[in-house]
Amino acid sequence: MKATQQLHDLGQSIWLDNITRDLLNKGTLKFYIDELSVTGLTSNPTIFDQAIKNSLAYDPAIREKLAKDKSSEDLFFDLAMEDLIRAADLFRPIFDRTNGVDGWVSLEVSPLLAYDTVTTLAAAKELYARAARPNLFIKIPGTKEGLPAIEEAIFAGVPVNVTLLFSREQYLAAAKAFLRGIERRLDAGLNPNVGSVASVFVSRWDAAVAGKIPAELNNQLGIAIANRIYKAYRDLLASPRWQRTYNAGARPQRLLWASTGTKDPKASDVLYIKALAAPFTVNTMPEATLKAVADHGELGSIMAAGGGNCEEVIRQFAKAGIKVDALAMQLQEEGARSFVKSWNDLMTVIDSKSSALKLAA
After folding, report:
1. Are 77 and 108 contacting, i.e. CB atoms less than 8 angstroms apart?
2. Which residue from 9, 139, 305, 328 could staple onto 167, CB 3.0 to 4.6 Å apart?
3. Helices (H), the chain
4. Residue 138 pairs with which residues in a beta bridge?
């Protein structure tokens, strides 16, 4: 049995951290669904930047839309929406079969809005309505300014993938924003069943401390932080406040492991996949990682609900001079800047392609 099937049987959803028009046109995504137990996918500006830059598949659509004199941003959202609607339709049978637990795709609001609550909320509502698909998450960053937008989006019935979470504290803030939105829906007599995931970035922790710690601590911080967050997640699910909402018909916000591709060439290509195997979670994997997991036969043990020895490991990093709380904030800020850079690169790629296609017309 493939390890991907083992993860699925364990109760962990496998989502692909990629989308391209070629994946759709060539049937590759359908193959991943049918053969590798993939039950959803995520996207971000970096993914679309690479997809549009490295493929001719988008050229006909860009050429067709040029006559409408749209901005690069509007043109991008047209292209992204076309891809994600097709993907959402591929996953729709899974969404229907699992009563909306699985079968999701994700589209991110412009990362330029990461620190703008009002505009983020407006964009989230507009994109979700435009897609007209129930299994589309709108990605909103879990920044301080993003938290009110998350609460308001959930209250408005917009499913949210909270992104750019690194620490237990950031996760809990996002989870409580989700919960407030659900409780407000209940108070207003609205259906509380609004989907959400909280995306925790893992491997960036280890990349950030590489070369700054004793060798025996390499590639351990991200997993320790993930275990700390998993404990908080399990504790929150068991709390009376959350269980009251579930009893009223709400669905739990699931924990999603993001940034699970191994950055260290000396480490196992399935390092984070094996370490983060846990029921009632999602693991979103780059294509290379997904294929590596499928090739490995055994997973090992599942995550401990109590966090295992994560606090002792984190103390070892503190002794080595790593200030975890400060680093969490730094990673979130760097992540937001990274997405802005990718967004600007993406706009440049679209401008460049548009100019070239105009000249060739």
Report:
1. no
2. 328
3. 3-10, 21-25, 28-35, 45-53, 59-66, 72-97, 117-131, 146-155, 168-187, 203-209, 221-237, 240-247, 271-275, 287-295, 310-319, 324-360
4. 107, 160
DSSP code, position 102: S
Instruction: Tokens for 25, please give them.
Output: 């046109």
pLDDT at 360: 76
Angle among Cα 160, 21, 347 to the nearest 5 degrees reads 70
- Whole-angstrom distance, CA of residue 135 vs CA of residue 100: 7
332 burial level (CB within 10 Å; 0-12, 13-18, 19+): buried
The Cα 37–Cα 15 span in angstroms is 9
> What's the pLDDT tens digit per position in 150-192?
999 999 999 999 999 999 999 999 999 999 999 999 999 999 9
| C-beta separation of 260 from 202 below 8 A | yes
| Most confident by average pLDDT, 46-50, 59-63, 217-221 | 217-221
| 139 is known as an active-site residue | yes
Non-local (6+) Cβ contacts of 340 within 8 A are 111, 112, 114
Residue with tokens 């993939």: 38
CA–CA separation, 186 and 178 (whole Å): 13
Burial label, 310 (beta-carbon count in 10 A; 0-12, 13-18, 19+):
buried
Amino acid at 118: V
Among candidates 74, 91, 75, which has minimal Cα distance to 23? 91
pTM value is 0.95
Half-sphere exposure of 292 (CA within 13 A, CB side): 16
Name, in order, each residue with C-beta under 8 angstroms of 236's C-beta and a sequence gap of 6 or more: 172, 175, 242
* 196 and 174 Cβ atoms separated by less than 8 Å: no
What secondary structure letter does DSSP report for 111?
G
The encoded tokens of residue 93 equal 């049978």
Q: Is 281 left (phi over 0), alpha (psi -120 to 50) or beta?
A: beta
Cβ neighbours of 142 (radius 10 Å): 26
Is the separation of the CB atoms in 252 and 242 below 8 Å? Answer: yes
